[in-house]
Amino acid sequence: MTLSAFDDKASPPTDQALEAVLGRSGKLWTRLKLDLQEAHGPLTEEWNFSGAAFGWSFRLKKKKRAIVYMTPCRKHFLASFALGEKACRAAHVAELPPSVLSLIDEAPKFAEGRGVRIAVRNKSDLDSVESLVAIKVAN
Question: Which of 7, 8, 31, 76 could join 2 in a cystine, given CB atoms 3.0 to 4.6 angstroms apart?
C-alpha cells in the first residue's frame, strides 16, 4: 500500500480525482496552496511520483528548494518537510501545539534534516503547517 491515495505512475492525479479523494479536506488543500503562494511566492507547483511505496505527491518549491510536500490520502492529506536543526529549534520557540513539537522531536534525521509529516484534517492542522513553512523559509 502506498502512502498516497494515488499510486499509478502512469496517471498523475487530476483535479477531479483529487477532490474526490480529499473530500472536505480539499478546501484545506486549496487554502494551503493559496496562503503559501501569497506569503512566500512565487512558488512552483509540481506533481512528483516518488516510487511504488509513496505514490504521487505535490510539491511547492521556492526556486529549487522544496518547502512542503503535500501527499493526498483518503479524506485528508499529509504535509511533509525536511527541517534543518536551526528550523527545529525555531519551532520550539514558536507557539506550536505540543503534538507538533513531539512529531518534530521524534522525526527521523536525514542529511536534509528531520523528516516531519503532519496529517492535515482541520484548520488547526493547517495553521501548524503554515507556521512550519514560515519557519522553514526563514531558516
Answer: 7
Distance between CA atoms of 99 and 138, rounded to whole angstroms? Answer: 22
pLDDT, tens only, 97-126: 999 999 999 999 999 899 999 999 999 999
Q: Does residue 78 belong to any structural domain of this protein?
A: yes
* Residue 25 amino acid letter: S
Rg, C-alpha atoms of the chain: 14
Q: How far is CA 81 from the centre of its chain?
A: 6
* Single pTM value for the model: 0.94
Cα 32 from chain centre = 9
Tally of domains within the chain: 1
3-state secondary structure 7-67: CCCCCCCCHHHHHHHHCCHHHHHHHHHHHHHHHHCCCEEEEEECCCCCCEEEEEEECCEEE
